[in-house]
Structure formats: C-alpha cells, structure tokens
Amino acid sequence: MKKNQHKKQQPWPTKDAMQQVYDMKLWGGNTTVFYSGEGSHLPEMVTPYIQAMRSFLLSFKNRLSVCDLGCGDFNIGKELVQYTKQYIAIDIVPTLIKYNKEKFVAENLTFHCLDIAVDEIPFGECALVRQVLQHLSNDEVKSILKKLRNFKHVIITEHIPLGDFEANKDIISGQGIRLKKQSGLDVLAPPFNFKVKEEKQLVVVPMNEGKEALVTTYYRTF
Questions:
Q1: Measured by CB atoms within 10 angstroms of the end CB, which terminus of the chain is less buried, N or C?
Q2: In sequence order, what are the residues at sequence separation of 6 or more whose Cβ sits closer than 8 angstroms to the Cβ of residue 24?
Q3: What pTM was computed for the model?
Q4: Residue 145: enclosing H or E segment and its boundaries?
Q5: What burial letters (b/e) apply to 120-134, b meaning 16+ CB within 10 Å?
Q6: Do the strands 212-220 and 198-207 form a parallel or antiparallel pair, or are they unpaired?
Q7: How confident is the model over 76-92, as pLDDT tens digits?
Q8: How many CA atoms lie within 13 A of 51 on its CB side?
Q9: Are the beta carbons of 73 and 28 closer than 8 angstroms?
C-alpha cells in the first residue's frame, strides 16, 4: 500500500477559486488590499444586519461564543466582536486570514484558515454564515449543514430572488451565485432539508427594485 493512498484530498476547487476572487479583485475594491464585495460594505446592506446581530447577541444573559463561517474582509465581524464571549472568524483564503490577524486584534478574537466544507469547525454556540453558501455547490452546502447541526443558533444570510423561484439549483463554486439561474438557497428545502426547531426572519433588505433581497434568517437547531 502506498504511503499516501488514503490521504484526504481536497474534493472541491473552492479554495483556489476564492483566492482568485481576492487576487483579481473580482468583487471590486481596487483601492483596498482585500474587499469582500458590496454586501459587506454598502451601508444599506450592512447597517440593518449589524443592528439585528447586536440585538440578538445582547439578548442573552450570558454572552455567546460565535463562529463566523466565511468572515471575509471582516468589515462586518469587527463590529460584533465586542458583544460575544468568544469570536472565532474563519475563511478559506490563507492570505486573507493572515491580513486579518494583523489588522484586527482583540482578547476574545481568533482567526482560522479553514475550508468549512472539508475541515473540522471549532466549537461555538452560534454560527454566522453570511453570503457564503450562495457561492457554493450543493454538495458543499450539504457538508456544511451537517456541521451546523452542532450549533444551537445558526444565522444564515442569502441573496435570493423575491416571488416564486426554484430553490437550490446547483452551481459550481466560485464568484457567482444562484441568482444567475433565477434561483436562491433555501436550507429547509430539498436537497438539504435542514431540520430546525425554530425559524425566524431577522432582516430583509430589498434590492434591484424589489426583485431580489438580502435575507437573514435565524434557526434554532435544538
């Protein structure tokens, strides 16, 4: 038997794709080192989310440990760290995580470079997954949702069409999202069928003249 015969292989090319997004500035931000797109910077998208997350996090008597799965350039996460017991920020791009570690420092903040579809995720009470799953293939989403069952509180933000649409059309992971196929992600629908005890919409930001929206949903899993 060859020594590396059973070595775990990267099943998806997501890491290279996301590194390319930042290297080529495919989400804009030509004047910044790293830029995670308008969804992480435009006030009309960011402010309502931060306000809702602040209220949610402060609603607990004991502060929560939070895992930010796909933290990006941390323009949003930096506003939430102070309301948590522990803030674990994770992204798949090594150079991005290295930059974030140098730029953002707090006693309760740590950064990790992980592929959340492949690697083991650190423990936390609450998972934040903001505009991440929409970029990933259905197989990767399935893998991530299995791990999200370990978090009591899961908050997912997705850019979806409004009105009738076919949910969860498959895509190749990368810069684009399901909107190009007139689809959007619904973790409760097939093929995901994410089981939850509670579901609640926290924020809806209309976009593109009301044809689309950035929707943030809270799920309690147990």
A1: N
A2: none
A3: 0.92
A4: helix 138-148
A5: ebeebbbbbbbbbbb
A6: antiparallel
A7: 999 999 999 999 999 99
A8: 9
A9: no
